[in-house]
Amino acid sequence: xxxxxxxxxxxxxxxxxxxxxxxxxxxxxxxxxxxxxxxxxxxxxxxxxxxxxxxxxxxxxxxxxxxxxxxxxxxxxxxxxxxxxxxxxxxxxxxxxxxxxxxxxxxxxxxxxxxxxxxxxxxxxxxxxxxxxxxxxxxxxxxxxxxxxxxxxxxxxxxxxxxxxxxxxxxxxxxxxxxxxxxxxxxxxxxxxxxxxxxxxxxxxxxxxxxxxxxxxxxxxxxxxxxxxxxxxxxxxxxxxxxxxxxxxxxxxxxxxxxxxxxxxxxxxxxxxxxxxxxxxxxxxxxxxxxxxxxxxxxx
Length: 300
Known about the structure:
With 300 residues, this protein is mainly alpha-helical. It has two domains: 1-96; 99-291, Serine Threonine Protein Phosphatase 5, Tetratricopeptide repeat, CATH 1.25.40. The chain has helices spanning 3-12, 18-26, 30-40, 43-55, 59-70, 75-87, 91-98, 108-120, 124-131, 138-147, 154-171, 184-194, 198-210, 217-229, 233-240, 245-258, 262-270. α14 (217-229) runs parallel beside α16 and α15 packs antiparallel against α16 (245-258). The longest helix is centred in the middle third of the chain and has 18 residues, at 154-171.
């Protein structure tokens, strides 16, 4: 077993595939999977066995299964062990195992993962402090919003987002279409909503859209979904039947269906404009779609 072999397995699904490992585990062959992991250095067997053992609370056995992989120094194995240690109630050991020696020279993906680990260990403020110096675009800002959800840090996060959201509002008028924080407005609305300030989030996004102070189609979708979640059907209908129908009509129809109004939803979909192309906007080029999901560091 060596780093190159493990990396090859992870990237090429070498050895027993995850689906095969899952099938073996579902049929009660945990001991066999553990044995194959030990005898043949099968990464997916080790991962599957460790997850099964952790679910059963057998953290000591899980660490034993993972240890031969850890000794190779392969980062995904180190992260897997850190995860077991956290689940076993040994957060300090887990964090120290993967703590970046020099955050300034650590990849963003690893910083993001470590921030998530810090939050799981209860070190929320340390996670925020780790990320803030590296917020230079939509990805890390999204991670900051993700890891602080439910952690009673919404006001601090809103303060951090505000200047980026304001800059994004101004960017369209200045034709800065590649603005690094093109998702800041919907992130701001998301945090406002989870902080119990949904009406404020709806108002702010609505004003941005009415004034064309936004950069991506995702901002339109975020506003429509926000309206749908809070039952603002009149405003959602107005948004979905005007110039933005090509973007948000599906959201409107879905909201109607979710509220038992299937016939209305069908009528809405039948009214879809024949062309799927968005109408021209006042300031070229047309809106881009922006970052819809953040990339994740592939540890496996």
